[in-house]
From TrEMBL:
Transmembrane segments: none annotated. This is Hcp1 family type VI secretion system effector. Pfam families: T6SS_HCP (PF05638). InterPro entries: Hcp1-lik_sf, HSI-I_assembly_Hcp1, T6SS_Hcp.
């Protein structure tokens, strides 16, 4: 079973109202502190490509990285997230307080990261409240950011970590950043 968690960079946002995650159940590099359980997420990227053969790279501009769209059940953190959206407040400020999305795999009572996504200077750009005929209401919210780092954890069959692959991108610089946030303000 997969588990998706969102951890704001500024833990005071949670106001002791999120789900405390027992990090002892994680095999490696799991969350510490309060998290919001996520039902689903969506994010994309694309490169603008041209058919002009005179351009060897065939690109026609900068890459487009979409906002992260997350869906969660309405809960005690909802009103605080509304406040942050309407006030255009950062969910974590700078490289030292990234907001993090954990996508984990649960098996045999243990959880292992499949991919960890860190967002520098994340801000909620939109929230949509949704009701469903046979389920509890959900909220879809979008996260905008200045830099992103993706860390994929390779796994052995016994769920032990084999290694990690990391890449990152700065939207502000339109350049790769590897696995470390830039100090650009």
């Amino acid at each position: 079973m997969d588990l998706i968690l969102f951890q704001p960079g500024d833990q005071s946002i949670m106001n002791n109202e999120g789900s405390e995650i027992d990090n002892a159940g994680w095999m490696a590099d799991g969350p510490s502190g309060l998290c919001i359980e996520i039902v689903s997420l969506h994010q994309g990227m694309k490169q603008q490509v041209t058919t002009d053969v005179s351009n060897n790279a065939r690109t026609s501009g900068r890459p487009i990285i979409t906002e992260f769209t997350l869906v969660k059940y309405v809960d005690q953190t909802s009103v605080k997230l509304y406040d942050y959206c309407l006030g255009a407040k950062l969910l974590g400020d700078g490289a030292g307080a990234p907001s993090t999305i954990y996508i984990g795999r649960e098996s045999g009572g243990k959880t292992m990261n499949i991919i960890k996504i860190q967002l520098k200077d994340a801000i909620i750009s939109e929230i949509q409240l949704q009701t469903h005929p046979n389920d509890m209401p959900t909220e879809q919210f979008k996260l905008n950011f200045t830099e992103v780092i993706w860390t994929y954890t390779q796994q052995l069959n016994n769920m032990k970590p084999k290694g990690v692959k990391t890449t990152g991108w700065s939207l502000a610089k339109n350049a790769p950043i590897g696995g470390t946030f830039s100090q650009l303000v």
